[in-house]
């Protein structure tokens, strides 16, 4: 994944780890540390040096360290059980790994018998502290429980949609358990309240996967996904609409101040934030149907419920795909492959490694001043 500004928080995804194991987990999963230095890796004859973030251990060995066969390469099982026993494969054998031999394998590419490992195995340039941290995590990898997941349940926080009725559901022997508060022992938080900033701030700190309806700024933290367009998308859509009808326009992003003497051939473009801080009944009658208001989604009484239903539908679909061995990391990776997922009241949702904001389409409305209401036209508009 490319959105890694939240990597410190993501190190906390495993409950019960020591600080050293958390640092080692970050190296294992993401090839990086929370200190001020980077980690390099070499390939082949060591002439090619790349950032370890491109080749973290988990990419090949998997989050659980059991190895993920791919492209004809079968990475080794590097769980503690596998590494601490001797192994014979055909004519080749090796003794059990010790900490020093495991460090040698990681940094020099030699197995515990001194044989070269497969050329696909990078050699990591670790500091002594990095090596100690990584080995500490490798002592427990595969045995760390996932927050919010038990043998018979997966807990999901759903905030801001108390009227959402959730049918009893079970996946791979686990029932979906809904919490209406932000429980720390949950796998995921869905927040469709009018202001999800508290959930977003908490997710930035603790790494909990979080789906929210709206965020003023585009999401830049790896574990946060937004259903609707950002503020910048609103501005782009408003300006695109004004150009499409060849109209002069002024844009307001904070409030509607300075609009009382606007020429009647000019559109007043208001973002959702500006509209919230604007006394629309104070606008001059001459601006009837000349005020265009942006919104992340159509403002309906059931809007929060629709958003929560969409987020829960996406989440449960992904959980069903990933099976019983789901982890927060595999869940987040899978969310980055959601493409044009369609749900009532929302523009189609697409997420990728480059963008965690679900849509660029914005709901635009005209203000009918005599009636003091917003009409649902022009509707969905995507900025150019």
From TrEMBL:
The alphabetized UniProt keywords are: Heme, Iron, Metal-binding
Does the record carry Transmembrane as a key word? no
- The keyword Metal-binding belongs to this UniProt entry's keyword annotation: yes
Do you know which InterPro entries this protein is assigned to? Cyt_c-like_dom (IPR009056), Cyt_c-like_dom_sf (IPR036909)
Instruction: Identify the domain of life.
Output: Bacteria
Pfam families linked: Cytochrom_C
UniProt-recorded name of the protein: C-type cytochrome
Per the UniProt record, the source organism is Pseudolysobacter antarcticus
At the highest ranks, the source species' classification is: Bacteria, Pseudomonadati, Pseudomonadota, Gammaproteobacteria, Lysobacterales
């Amino acid at each position: 994944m490319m959105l890694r500004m939240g990597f410190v928080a993501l190190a906390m995804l495993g409950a019960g780890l020591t600080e050293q194991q958390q640092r080692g987990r970050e190296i294992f999963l993401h090839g990086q540390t929370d200190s001020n230095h980077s980690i390099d890796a070499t390939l082949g004859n060591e002439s090619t040096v790349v950032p370890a973030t491109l080749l973290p251990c988990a990419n090949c060995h998997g989050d659980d360290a059991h190895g993920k066969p791919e492209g004809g390469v079968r990475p080794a099982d590097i769980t503690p059980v596998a590494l601490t026993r001797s192994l014979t494969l055909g004519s080749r054998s090796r003794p059990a790994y010790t900490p020093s031999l495991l460090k040698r394998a990681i940094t020099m590419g030699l197995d515990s018998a001194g044989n070269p490992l497969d050329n696909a195995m990078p050699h990591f340039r670790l500091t002594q502290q990095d090596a100690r941290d990584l080995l500490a995590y490798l002592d427990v990898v595969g045995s760390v429980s996932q927050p919010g997941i038990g043998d018979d349940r997966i807990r999901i926080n759903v905030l801001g949609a108390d009227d959402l009725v959730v049918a009893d559901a079970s996946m791979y022997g686990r029932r979906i358990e809904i919490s209406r508060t932000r429980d720390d022992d949950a796998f995921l938080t869905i927040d469709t309240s009018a202001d999800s900033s508290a959930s977003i701030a908490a997710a930035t700190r603790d790494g909990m996967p979080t789906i929210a309806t709206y965020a003023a700024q585009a999401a830049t933290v790896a574990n946060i996904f937004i259903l609707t367009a950002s503020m910048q998308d609103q501005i782009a859509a408003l300006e695109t609409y004004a150009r499409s009808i060849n109209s002069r326009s002024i844009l307001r992003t904070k409030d509607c101040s300075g609009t009382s003497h606007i020429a009647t051939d000019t559109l007043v473009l208001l973002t959702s934030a500006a509209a919230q801080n604007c006394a629309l009944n104070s606008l001059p009658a001459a601006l009837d149907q000349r005020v265009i208001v942006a919104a992340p989604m159509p403002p309906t009484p059931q809007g929060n419920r629709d958003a929560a239903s969409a987020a829960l539908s996406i989440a449960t679909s992904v959980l069903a795909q990933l099976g019983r061995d789901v982890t927060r990391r595999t869940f987040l990776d899978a969310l980055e492959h959601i493409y044009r997922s369609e749900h009532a009241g929302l523009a189609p949702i697409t997420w990728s490694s480059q963008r965690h904001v679900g849509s660029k389409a914005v709901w635009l409305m005209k203000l009918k001043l005599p009636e003091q209401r917003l009409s649902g036209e022009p509707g969905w508009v995507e900025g150019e």
